[in-house]
């Protein structure tokens, strides 16, 4: 079932008209469909059934506690990139033993806390990080479970800002240095070498580079085995794309089949770190048109959401479909849909054919991933509310920020600290 669809002229989320949500909770707001979260997760768990695997949802895509809790209830693990994200997982009821901790810049304090919490694995990205983790673990009287994030030097063929697996990217350990680095890791007393991982980029619309990357990791796994270093798992990261416009993203089942074939008989368990493909099409950004404006040769629909709410269009020139919440028969015109922020790059969509009037609601589609999590308070704009819909029930899962919250860390300091 499609989670967002028209019934007559009204766009619904599951069984609820989006217009009703806007009236009750105001705009802008993010609206998530629980059925779409479940469906996306099930696509992975069904496709990988039969092999030892753990889906570690990358919560940088959407870290709302209710979303995390839902995935935890489905059995998910979590890929995290800060102690803050780890604490979110715990706050939402996720299991510490199913958390992997990625990222190039883990601080000693983050390591200490993650060791105390007892996460499943540190995905280590450099030799210096390895040595720091060994020291911190020794001081804490622990042994840190580690995987090395290897940079397989594979071109993910995606937007350069979200490509991470080429040798000129900051991520991971260079492929040629991986064997040596594993030998060093195995010799450090406070580390327990359990895995290998990679993540080559995001919004991949062809799975071939992901499979190529896995093949390259498996060559290393074999070489490590010959050197007496036996790994328990391979973690192939995230990256599967979604349909924003006319893309045909890789089918999870076909992707799984290719992976299963390569892992057969190896005795390795599999970790995956999907983010976007679990949440992207489960959310929309709901916004209301404040003004229609006729420029010199341009029509603008000025809405109450902006680049601070959804930065993907201005940051990556990313395309999101924009749909009217109530369809009209009025004449269609071509609009740039823009926000109130004081930047020319503040747009949500360009040259969109819409039949709209002032006061109408628009739904910016496919906004469940890297929407709310990348939002900011630029122009002192409070972040909007977030709602989670299941059938005909609507739950407020993040309240709209208030002005008082925005200035809270400044107000007491206004007259200086002396
Ligand atoms: C280490 C790591 N794992 C997983 C992901 C999730 O990627 P995606 O949302 O493309 O599935 C990311 C983000 O790109 C990442 O950096
Ligand atoms: N933020 C990016 C994805 C980056 C993933 C993080 N490694 C996006 O919106 O597409």
Automatic annotation (TrEMBL):
Residues 37-279 form the Orn/DAP/Arg decarboxylase 2 N-terminal domain. The modification N6-(pyridoxal phosphate)lysine is found at residue 60. The active site is at 342 (proton donor). Residues 33-368 form the Orn/DAP/Arg decarboxylase 2 C-terminal domain. Pathway: Amino-acid biosynthesis; L-lysine biosynthesis via DAP pathway; L-lysine from DL-2,6-diaminopimelate: step 1/1. One of its GO terms (molecular function) is pyridoxal phosphate binding. Substrate binds at residues 276, 312, 316, 343, 370. Gene3D superfamilies: Alanine racemase (3.20.20.10), Lyase, Ornithine Decarboxylase, Chain A, domain 1 (2.40.37.10). Its EC number is 4.1.1.20. The keyword Amino-acid biosynthesis applies. Specifically catalyzes the decarboxylation of meso-diaminopimelate (meso-DAP) to L-lysine. Homodimer. PANTHER family: DIAMINOPIMELATE DECARBOXYLASE, GROUP IV DECARBOXYLASE. This is Diaminopimelate decarboxylase. It comes from Microvirgula aerodenitrificans. The gene is lysA.
């Amino acid at each position: 079932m499609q989670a967002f669809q028209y019934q007559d002229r009204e766009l619904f989320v599951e069984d609820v008209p989006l217009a009703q949500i806007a009236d009750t909770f105001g705009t802008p707001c993010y609206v998530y469909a629980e059925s779409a979260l479940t469906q996306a997760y099930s696509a992975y768990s069904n496709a990988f059934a039969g092999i030892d695997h753990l889906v570690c949802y990358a919560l940088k895509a959407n870290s709302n506690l209710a979303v995390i809790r839902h995935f935890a209830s489905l059995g998910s693990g979590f890929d995290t990139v800060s102690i803050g994200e780890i604490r979110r997982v715990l706050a939402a009821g996720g299991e510490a033993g199913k958390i992997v901790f990625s990222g190039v810049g883990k601080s000693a304090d983050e390591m200490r806390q993650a060791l105390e919490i007892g996460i499943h694995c540190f995905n280590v990205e450099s030799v210096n990080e390895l040595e720091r983790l060994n020291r911190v673990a020794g001081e804490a009287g622990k042994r840190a479970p580690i995987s090395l994030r290897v940079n397989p030097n594979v071109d993910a063929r995606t937007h350069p800002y979200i490509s991470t697996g080429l040798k000129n990217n900051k991520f991971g350990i260079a492929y040629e240095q991986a064997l040596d680095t594993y030998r060093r890791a195995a010799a450090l007393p406070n580390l327990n070498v359990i895995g290998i991982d990679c993540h080559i980029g995001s919004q991949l619309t062809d799975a071939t580079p992901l499979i190529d990357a896995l093949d390259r990791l498996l060559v290393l796994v074999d070489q490590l085995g010959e050197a007496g270093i036996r790994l328990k798992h391979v973690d192939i990261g995230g990256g599967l794309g979604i349909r924003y416009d006319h893309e045909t993203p890789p089918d999870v089942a076909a992707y799984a089949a290719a992976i299963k074939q390569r892992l057969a008989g190896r005795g390795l368990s599999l970790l995956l770190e999907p983010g976007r493909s679990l949440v992207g099409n489960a959310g929309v950004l709901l916004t209301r048109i404040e003004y229609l404006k006729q420029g010199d040769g341009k029509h603008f629909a000025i809405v109450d959401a902006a680049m601070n709410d959804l930065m993907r269009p201005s940051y990556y020139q990313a395309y999101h479909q924009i749909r009217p919440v109530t369809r009209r028969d009025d004449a269609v015109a071509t609009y740039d849909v823009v926000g109130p922020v004081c930047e020319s790059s503040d747009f949500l969509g360009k040259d969109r054919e819409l039949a709209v009037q002032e006061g109408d609601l628009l739904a910016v589609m496919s906004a469940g991933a890297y929407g709310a999590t990348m939002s900011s308070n630029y122009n002192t704009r409070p972040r909007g509310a977030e709602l989670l819909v299941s059938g005909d029930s609507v739950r407020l899962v993040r309240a709209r920020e208030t002005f008082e919250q925005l200035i809270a860390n400044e107000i007491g300091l206004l007259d200086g600290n002396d």
